[in-house]
Amino acid sequence: MTAPVVGVDIGGTKTAAALVGPGAEVLARREVPTPARSGPDAVLDAAAGLAADLLGSAGAGPVGVGAAGTVDPASGRIRYATDSLPGWAGTPVADALGVRLGRPVRVTNDVNAAALGECWAGAGRDHADVLLVAVGTGLGGAIVRAGRVEAGARGAAGEVGHLPAPGAERLRCGCGRYGHLEAIASGTGLAAAYALATGARLTGRAVAQRAAGGDPVARQAVDRAGAVLGAALAGLVALLDPEAVVVAGGAAGVLLPAASAAYAAHLPAGWADVPLLPATLGADAALVGAARLAMDPPDIEERTRG
Question: What pLDDT, in 10s, does the model give residues 114-123?
Answer without folding.
Answer: 999 999 999 9
